[in-house]
Amino acid sequence: MLAVAAVAIAVAEAEEDRLPYSFSEVAQGAGITARTVFGGAESNRYLLETTGCGAAFIDADGDGWLDAFLVNGTTLEGFPRGQEPVNHLYRNRRDGTFEDVTASSGLGASGWGQGACVGDYDNDGREDLYVTSYGQNRLYHNRGDGRFEDATARAGLLDPRTRWGTGCAFLDYDRDGKLDVFAANYIDLDLKTAPVPESGLCRYKGIAVACGPPGLTGGKNVLYRNRGDGTFEDVSERAGITKARGTYGLGVSTFDFDADGWVDVYVANDSNPSTLYRNNRDGSFTDVGIEAGCAFSLDGKNQAGMGVGIGDYDRNGTFDIFKTNFAGDTSTLYVNNGDGSCEDRTYAGGVGTNTRWLGWGAGFVDLDNDGWLDVFLTNGHVYPEVWKLPTEAAYKQRKVIYRNLRDGRLEDVTERLGAPVTDARAGRGSAFGDYDNDGDVDVLVNNVNDAPDLYRLDNRSGHHWLTVKLVGTVSNRSAIGARVRSSAGAITQVEEVRGGGSYISQNDLRVHFGLGGATKAERLEVRWPNGLVEEWRDVAADRIVTLTEGTGTRARAE
Amino acid sequence: MAPLLILLLAATPAPAGLAARARGHYETGLREEKAGALQAAEAAYREALRLAPRMARAHDRLGFVLGQLGRTQEALDAFRRAAEADPKLFDAQYHLGATLWWAGDSTSALIPLRKAVALDPRHAEARYYLGVCLKSQGQLGAGVVELREAVRLNPRIPLAHLHLGLALQQMGDIAGAVDSLRRAAELDPQSRDARNSLGVALMLKGDADEAIATLRSLVADDPADAEAQQNLGSALLQKGDLEGAVGVYRSLVAERPDALAYYNLGLALKQRDDFPASEKALRQAMTLDETLPDPPYTLGVVLWQTNRLDEAAEALRVAIERKPDYAEAHYLLGTILRSNGDLAGAAEEFRQTIRDQPGSAEAYLSLGQVLKRQGDPEGAASALAEAERINKKKIDTQAATFAIDLGKRRLAASDLAGALESLREAVRLAPEMADAHYQLGLALRRQGTRKEAQTHFAAAQRLAPWLLIPPE
């Protein structure tokens, strides 16, 4: 009896120890196979070869299933005409697989592609794309027939200078119902004059590596205002965007930091204070990152910020920030105090125990649908030359998955999850979205000089969920900037529709809620980007619902 | 009167005869000395001096023999008498100076050594001793000048290269230090000092691979050399070989469980994110040596990172007690106090950090943030402005480094106009950077603008006295 009891206890403990979800890496089987080429595989001459590419979830054909867009790059040597690596669009077949429709989509551009963001900029009901590059960023208009057309020139978005666009976001900063475009710029890099590893000036743990960004001229971010006629106007100076204290911008996400109904923007900057553009509600922004306490490390140092995840992980009604940083440093967890300030809870939150990994894409995502946001973090070293260093954390690195302990702390559960998240990959951009519409959030990762990964999340928790697609009518059609509050049983959560996100990527524009044991949301409150507040009552769980602006019940925001 | 005169004449020997006899004893002394019969030599020199008390050379050789017999003070007295009897006798001044140096009195050694060098500017060893004396007196620039001259006159003095390398390292010329220390090690492969110092300099230069190879061979030759092992561990850490570093420190701790070994082990484990083991090693280091400030500081960092703030504060206070001007400890303590809401305490710690480390942008930034919360907007603005100024200077210095690199490349490609543009930019960005002025001077000289070139060369040498301006 005792032996049986002991075994039972051991089994119970093992069961408890096992997480109620797991990941499967399914990209190859799903048909997402095109290799991302980006710079030299063994060594990089310039920092240009290190940043890798972004990923975007986009419902390109409007069928309610997420398609996948993966940006691609090139090498310094280039490729023969016709053999260049190209960006790829994969159409979701709705059966767990994708079809590569790049050739017919008009999205197969080549070059030093960087990031991507999604939004319906002309409010025609079809999601458009903006793709950043070292070179010329491009706006792609979705024609609705499976094709995208390059609208960059027509939209007035051609830039005569060579710029290094990175993270981007569609957003309606002036609340005129039309999506504008924000893009971060990393470095004003001139390959003719930039220093090279052989100069000996740039070393990482003794090995010569690509130089920068400190010492190189930083890029200035840009904001293009949508005129509503298919064209855009560069308002970067007028809007105060160019006055940010930091530079070397990478990951971008929109969010409403101060809950005033006007979209703000966070930019993770490399080797500089990160930027928090607070919307002044008059067509301009002010960088309040330093004053707000969301710019530096806890001990006041610059960090090599890459990716940014936004979410209300402590469920206090405000949106917190998770920023990824360099190896030898921790990720940063900024808790939004709701009073215009952040509190750095990196160590208090349990994130300070990981310094070996170099983080890129990241997101707050409810992995077990218990109503508490967990964290998924993609890693990979910057320098391929680290193969010369006998370190544990090499060029390819494992992910880090943090489980929300519901008391302000996060716990690293990566080892408990095991493969595939412990498999070493040179990860970069990561997009979060429910591609198989099964109620849990999956992750698409763009790796460097490798095929992408698609981590399908399989949830055994038995918890309920609700995914909300928002459609603006007065507000921008994509409802970017909309805030959703879900009250389901004991769980009240807030979420947003955000432009950009993670590392130079675009997450699912639908809003996902884990509801725990609740079988319905007694109340869904939506604050639309243009200010209207509506509510829907008794929305059944375990489905995807579409809420259209103007069809709910008018309400006062809670 | 006549008998007294006769007596007097009889008591005073004829000078020529005395001198000859003194010389005879002196030469006997030289022969005895050459034959290794030091005591006989001493006796002969003393006899010579009895007959000719102002025979400088005899005093000098007597001093030499006494020195070899281990009677240093007597030797010094003899050299002093030699120098007094004939201030222009090179050997007297040189031997006096060198012996004072070896006796640990570098201050007194300076005067005779300066005289020796003035008497024979081409004597490499005299230059060497003068150089090391100046170095030990903190006159690094002047010491480097003498040591450089010593190795120029005689390139095969290992100790001259060694001390030159150490002086250059202290002055910040790490590349120069590595070259000199490498030469010292080549000339005297048995010199552990040279090899160890070379290993350290290579680490400072960032050449982790060569540092590791150098230090590994040193440790292989003498595994009991704890200092070499410590340095090897540091080099491995620098390269990011955490496993290697931990291995070195674990074996060091097993063989010689001293505070430094435990401290370095704790540091390596921390970098591996093994916080419990790191904490254990650091606490052990603290117990073994209650004077070392670094173990409690690093323990404070570990505790902070694992969110044990009160314990972290306690450890940091211990570090500060052991080293009151420990800027990093004050800063981290201030950060913790701020987290705990003790704004006044935090402000004081940040102010102390600034006093100890005036170039700390983070301290100014943090002070500014605290002052703002305390309702002192003017103080806050001033502190934040200083933080920004310091950060800008760092950024500009890095940009200047790249501009210099570009300037040199353009010069090498015969693009003189482009080179001048880049190098002028470097000087504009970092007017206190010696190399910027130096490189611009070279480019201006190439252009033929000699006067302006000279201005920049002068600026370069003012900023970095060890810089040698090549002749035209």
Describe the structure.
The complex is a heterodimer of chains A (558) and B (472). By secondary structure, chain A is mainly beta. Chain A is 6% helix and 37% strand. In chain A, strand 23 and strand 24 form a beta hairpin. The longest helix of chain A is centred in the N-terminal third of the chain and has 16 residues. About 1% of the residues of chain A have low confidence. Chain B is mainly α and 472 residues long. Chain B contains 26 helices and no strands. In chain B, helix 22 packs antiparallel against helix 23. Chain B is globular, with a radius of gyration of 31 Å. Chain B starts with a helix and ends in a 9-residue tail after the last helix. Chains A and B meet through loops of A and helix 13, helix 15, helix 20, helix 22 and helix 23 of B.
Q: What tags apply to this protein structure?
A:
heterodimer, A: 558 residues, mainly beta, five-stranded antiparallel beta sheet, 5 helices, 39 strands, 6% helix, globular, B: 472 residues, mainly alpha, 81% helix, 0% strand
